[in-house]
Amino acid sequence: MMMSFISLLLAVSFSESDGMEVGRAPAQFPAMFVLGDSLVDNGNNNGLSSLAKSNYLPYGIDFPGGPTGRFSNGNTIVDFLGDLLGLPLLPAFTATFTGERDVRSGVNYASAAAGILDESGLNLGDRFSLSQQVQNLGSTLNQLRNQMDEVELKQYLRKSLVVMNIGSNDYINNYLKPSFYSSSSTYNPEDYADLLIMNYAGQIMALYRLGLRKFLLAGIGPLGCIPNQLATGLAPPGKCVSAVNDMVRIFNKRLKSLVDQLNANHTDAGAIFVYGNTYGAFNDILGSPATYGFSATDRGCCGIGRNRGQITCLPFSIPCSNRDEYIFWDAYHPTQAFNEIIAQEAYSGSQSACYPINVKQMAQV
Prior knowledge:
36% of the residues lie in helices and 9% in strands. It has 365 residues and is α/β, with parallel strands linked by helices. A 6-stranded mixed sheet has the order 2-1-3-4-5-8. Strands 6-7 form a two-stranded parallel ribbon. This is GDSL esterase/lipase At5g08460. One of its GO terms (biological process) is lipid catabolic process.
């Protein structure tokens, strides 16, 4: 009886290797591959020489097992999305070097401070830029070739989901740091967005040439509303920094147009490119926070200074206790309560949240 009870407890427990929950529904995609920045990083920066790390408390205070390198108090958007899709928690790419971690359900390549441009985030130290993440995915395919034949691998890749969540650092750790980067004096916001989209499209096509066909491309959220930007004092009380949000909207408009272009140009069976309207979902929550259970919208749960966003969450800081009522965990990143809402929108939201179809529908294509 005692052994049966213990077995039952283990069957419903959470673990990093087995996923958010054991006993989930059958997977809707054979695998999910994640590329991006700190919004979806799950530990790839832990071993790097970088200021962009979160493998310490209070990060992970609500995550089973504690800090992992996720930039939140708990689960990220892709953790929740993977669970909705019936997939386990993905290993960080840096945890797959030894071959001991199973990569057949996918891998997370995201790296804090990474941008579309190779130089973005350099001010924070080492990181895996988007181009490097694409190369890293290619090395995972070499592992998979040892586990399945070419015909099986081709079908596996065609049916797998690619999630790309990147671009924020090309603004907050590039364009908006004129003391470190010359981009804002070289390009106006429109030309800079064009530069980003051109480089982004090149990396998407590199993944397409590897055999991947299903892409969820997340837009950038309203960066002018994050505590780090509010702490600059450039916004009127109760408002966001409109100049920053205007720049982000230009990028998002071009990203959505890129999705239309990619879908028009790649009509082979199973190919689908989807735009995730993170900006719109964020704005909906900011416009009616109480509806979603939030009471704190303009400050981090963990941080120092104005809006708790001038200095981000330091080791062993004391965070707020009512974390589920906060949109922002630290100066830059949302709480897991917010992440769960965004993941649900991506999975089953309307066309205004996920265009032209949502992730649940992508699985049927």
